[in-house]
Every structure is written in C-alpha cells, then in structure tokens.
Amino acid sequence: MMRRNLTYLTLLLVSVVLAGSVKASLPAEPDYSFLWNRFDRLIAVDSFVVGVSGDGVVICQYDSGEEVFVQVNQQTVDFAPVQMKRFGDVIAINTELNDILFLDAATLPEINFMGEVSPGVAFADFVLDRDNLYLSTWFDGLWSFRLSDYQTAQFADSSMKGILVTQLEVINDTLYVLDEYNGILRYDVSADGLGSFIDYLYVPLRAASFLRFDSIFSIALKTNGVLFGRFDAGDGEIIDSLFEVPNLRRIFETDTLLVMAGSRSLSLVNKNNWHEVLFVETYGEGTDGDIVWLDDGYRLALPDPEGGFTLYDLDTNELPVSGLSRPGPIEDVLLYDNILFTGGRANPVDLYDFDVDGRPEFLSTIYDGLRDVAGVERLGDSLFVLYPQLNRIVLYSGISDPDHAYLESSVIADSLAIPELYLVDHQFADTARFLLAVKTDGIDAYVIPDSGDVYLAQTWRFGSRGRLESFAIDGSLLFMATNKNLLLVYRINEDFTIEELLETSTNPVRTMLTHNGRLVVFEGYQITIYDYGNPTELVIDSVVDLPLPVLDAVIRGQKLYTVGEEGLTIFDLTSGYPVFEESGGKSGRFLDVDDRLIAASNGSRIDIYLLDSSTDVDDDEGGLPLAFHLRQNYPNPFNSSTVISYAIDHPARVVLIVYNLLGQAVSTLVDDRQAYGDHARIWDGTDESGRAVASGIYFYRLTVDDQIATRKMVLLK
Q: What DSSP character marks residue 403?
C-alpha cells in the first residue's frame, strides 16, 4: 500500500496536548481486531452467530431494529480451523494440527476459551459426551479419550469395527458412527469408553454423512441422493430414497424441514413427506453454516465467499439477504481525530469511534449505496473517496457530523489500476492542495482549490520504466520506485508538469517516504537512507537493518511506524535516524497512526493497537498545516473527566462552552485570547457552581471570531 507513505520537506509536527516523550508500548497481540471479511464456519447459539476463520473468532448478534447481525466481540487466533461443533454449553473447534479448543458458549458474547487438548492422532470427526471424547480416525477406526478437564485427553479405548469411519454423533447414550462403506454403527456408551457394540444400519451405497431426526436417519450419499433408514428391534433397514438432490454436502433440520445444502442449491424436504421437495438456488456460499431462529422464523446462515454471511429464509423462500455484510477485501484505513474510516471492495465507507477503553464501535456509514472503495482521504470537514466502479472521486462535506454528511461534488477519474488516493498539502500555491490518484502506470494530479470544484491538473506517466511500486513527495520533488528496480526523481513544475532529474538502479522497493531532507527506502530487511541535497544525484547517507520486513510505513511526530508480513515495528527518530524501539503485533499490508492508536490491516481484518497514552505520537493532521479544528473529546464516553483539545490558526479570542441537551450553558471552559496553535481544556463534569451534573449527552462549542465548531460527548456515571 502506497497511501500515506509520504511525509514532507518540512514536517509540521504539532504535538498532541499532554503528550510526552515516553517510549511506546506495542502489545504482542492487537488490543482489538474486527471486520473479518471471511468466515470458514458458523454456529448459531441463541441470538448469536459464532464465526471462525484463520483470522479469529467473531461473535455476531442480531439487531432486530436494523434487521442485520452486528459484530459484538472478536478475538484473534493462531490456528486454522477445520471443524466447529457445539455440545450443550461447549463449542469445540478442531484445528489443522488436530488440536481441539473448547469455548464456553454459556458466556457469549464474552469469548472464554476453557482449554485445549492434543489427542496425538489425526481424525475426521469428533464428539464430546460428558467427559468422553470420541474420535473417528478414518481407516484406523474409532478412538475414545477421557477428559479430566479441558486440558488433558487420556486414551481410554479403541475399536477397529468398520472400514472407513468418519462422522460421529451421540444421542441418549448411543454413539452413532458412520462407516462410509457399510453404514451406521451403534455403540452403547452409557458407561465410560466405547462401551459395547450394538448393531448397524447397512447402506448399500457409499455414504457421505447422516442426520437423525425423530427416529429416522437421512443419509447423504457420495453420489447424488439421500437414503432414509431406521433402527428396528433388530438390525436397521433402509425404508425410502430420494435421488433428486444435487451435489449434496450437508443436511440441516428445522421443526418441519430437512435442509439439504449443495454447492449451488438448497433442497427443502418436508419431514412428513420426503418426496415433497422445494429447490432454492444459492450463490456459491459454503455449506459449513447453521440454522438460526430469528423473530419471524428460521434462517440458514451460510458463509459468503465474498465475506460475511448470507441468510436464507426457510419459511418464505424469498431472495436471500445479507446477514453480516462485510465483503472484502479491505482496501484502506484512515485514522483522523480519533475516528477510524474503512473502505474496501464491495464495501462502503464505514466510520468507527472508540469507547473509553479504546474499543472500536460502529458509528455510521457514508452512503451505503456507494460501494467498492479504493481509497479514502480526509481534509478538515471534507472526505474524498475513490470509487473505481464509478470512475469517480467523490467529495463529501459535513463529515464532522457523519449522519448529516452530504455529497457535494465529484470528478471523473480514470480508475483503471488505481490502488489509492493521497492528499498533498500546499506546495505550489497558497490557495490549493493536491489530491493524487496513484496508479500502477502513473499518477493523476487533481487540484483542490480553497473555493471551487476539484479538477484534474496533470496526468503523469512514466513510459516503459515499469509498474509503480511506491512513491514519495517532498516539496516539488517526486520520487518513484518501479518493479524494474528503478528509482526515479522528478521535479514538479509550477504548471504541474514534471521534469526528470535522475534514473538509477535500486533493490526491490516495497515502500518509501521522506524525512528531514532524506529519502527513506525500505528494501527487504534493511532501510537505505539517501541524501538528496542535490536531487540529480542520490547519495547513500546510511543503511539501517530491519528486524522485520516492511510493506507500509508512516511517520507521526518523532516515531516511525512500520508493518509487514511478520508484524509491526516502532523506531525513534529523535536523532534524525531510525533507532529501533520494539516490534510485535500481527501481520499487515497497510497501517495508519493517530494519537494513541494504530490501525493495521492485512486486507481481511483490522487490528487496533492502543499505545501508551503518554507516547510521543504527534497529530500532524495528516501532514497539513495547522488550521481551525475542534477535536473529539477523549475519553468519550467518560465518567469523571475528559480532555477537549482544539487548534486555532491565528491569535484570537477563544470561547469554549459546554451545553446540555436543552441548549443551556453548563460550563464555560475558555473565554480568553489565545495564541496560534494547539490547546486543550479538561472538563470534570461539573457546572459553573462546581456541582456534578447528571449523566447524559452534552455538547461543546468552540467559537473563534466567525469560526464555530460543535461536537457531542457522553457523560456516564
């Protein structure tokens, strides 16, 4: 990701109020992770849907008002799930390493892992019955283990009956075992271990799976079709068949239906008349889902390969709806003023704020109907969003109040191979900024006047030099690295044309930025720092070894933050050169940093890291000159006191007042003349008389001459 890989010739470092110079504290794991785009498996537990993937475990809960599921908790994991099953109040997850993790279903939405066992044998299926764990091990038969707790599995028994044993189920002290070449075996497991073999239900065709409803077994065949059987006083018998079921993968049930899921369709079979079948087309979802009961009936939740999960109405058979719409991948994250902006393929721009503990909470969506976001940039109260499918860059205004943001204008963009947007500050004129649409074959430079519409100024192309991998801008200098291992230097002229100054060879470059008149280039496990005092000749200033490879990097204040496939790294820049501080966290392709937060993403999740509140992380407003700005109070909500910070762009009389919902002034925090720069005040939740005010919603208004800004905050006691 190349976005925000830039800084400027003169870094305007505006320190966050109350920030110190204490070393950052980077957790080994994210404090919060969310927005998984893909689930491998789903299980329904009451009003919750538990989703699991190689990224982590996500708890979703149905919001009846919005008629969708929302994520209410999540936890990263270090395993790849193969199977997930529920046994009463226990959810068990089988991993690719043949370990089984146990999750407490009774405490949802809290995620409490109760333990993990490693039986030491590969297995096709497992079932938990009281303290007994049963495994089917294909051609090696059936194994049982005794669990003294959820930490230790002690071998108890084994059986070689059958040829190829796979699926297992325990019902009323009877263990049912699928032998794919013979049928369903029955064991009495009322005592510990495997107990005694009872009998079997012979299946004349190779079986794939079974589901028991009432006293009947529906048996999915490896070939298309289903057999129905039952156990009588003696051996079991096949009593009926149904061969109109295509590509059967799994069978579910409701009170009245058998739901047979195939690769491209559902077959809804009436339990009272097995030959009454309704076919419902599906759209390529996985079959490792579950039946969910909502307010008005049954739904089948299936993992969507594009992300999230889809709900199929099993009562009305209407068109499927999105249960959790998180199609991906994530393409951009932006932290600005304690608000997280996200966007991605088939995703709109979503906004999240952070509670008092730093947990991200969904705030709003900007125009849900406009999706497929490739890049997001914010400038004050304006938001620029690149929509490749529309071939447009859209400007939203009023973004400080997302619920009332509006589409102000748009400009046509040649969106072919555009990976991102980048916002550049005043560099050539005092009345305009640049918005760069960065492509693999060049850069389109748009001008953002202080008044008037955005317009395309120039299109910069680089001929046969290769695909653009990374770039940086410093004043009028443009640096580019291509996939042909070329490093190019251009000068941007006043008419926005470019003039080539240098072409030189380099190692493969993943990202680069500029700092204090030097070009910082990330190449594998090292940083090469160039002096470009003479831009027609790059001189190597120094080389710094990297503990981890880098895919994206940003500078905030006197810190350099990087992310790559092996995690994050923080460097101190006080000396003018990167000095390693610490590393940790999970893999990622791009990141952003603001105040005490790091947001990093690998494209399928977003990881949030909370830095020490005294960390020297400067809010440089995205590298832009200081302007009039009222920031969101922190913490928010709060229960004792909160910090309100703001910036003014000239010396002036400043008035900062807290109001209640009735518009009555509660407390005047500032009424004085103040100097240009950053300022802050603490409100302790009291009125002008020093009396504590009640819990609720309050507003604070900043007035500087004719400039006015208002924000909302919540006091909780």
A: G
The structure tokens listed for 461 are 């192309």
Q: Which amino acid is at 707?
A: Q
N-to-C CA span, the chain = 43
Tell how strand 347-354 and strand 360-366 pair up: antiparallel
Q: Which has the higher per-residue pLDDT, 292 or 633?
A: 292
Q: Domain spanning 629-715: which CATH class is it, in words?
A: mainly beta
79-84 long-range contacts, Cβ below 8 Å, gap at least 24? Answer: 79/54, 80/54, 81/40, 81/41, 81/52, 81/53, 81/54, 83/41, 83/125, 83/126, 84/41, 84/42, 84/43, 84/50, 84/52, 84/288
Q: How many Cβ atoms sit within 10 Å of the Cβ of residue 618?
A: 21
Backbone φ and ψ for 404, nearest 5 degrees, come out as -120, 15
Residue 137's φ and ψ, nearest 5 degrees, are -120, 40
Question: Domain limits of the chain?
Answer: 330-623, 629-715
- Rounded to an integer, what distance in angstroms lies between the CA atom of residue 247 and that of residue 121? 30
In contact, 42 and 288? CB cutoff 8 Å: yes
CATH of 330-623, one of 3.40.50.300, 1.10.10.10, 3.40.50.460, 2.130.10.10: 2.130.10.10
- Asked if 100 and 119 touch (Cβ cutoff 8 Å), the reply is yes
Quickly tell me which residue has 């089988």 as its tokens: 94
Convert the pLDDT of each residue in 278-332 to its tens digit: 988 888 788 999 999 987 889 999 998 777 899 999 988 777 888 886 666 889 9
Neighbouring C-alpha atoms within 13 Å toward the C-beta of 468? 27
Q: What is the pTM of this model?
A: 0.64
d(CA 213, CA 270): 12
User: In angstroms, rounded to a whole number, what is the distance separating the alpha carbons of residues 531 and 166?
Assistant: 65
CA pair distance 383, 423, nearest whole angstrom = 11
Chain centre distance of CA 656: 37
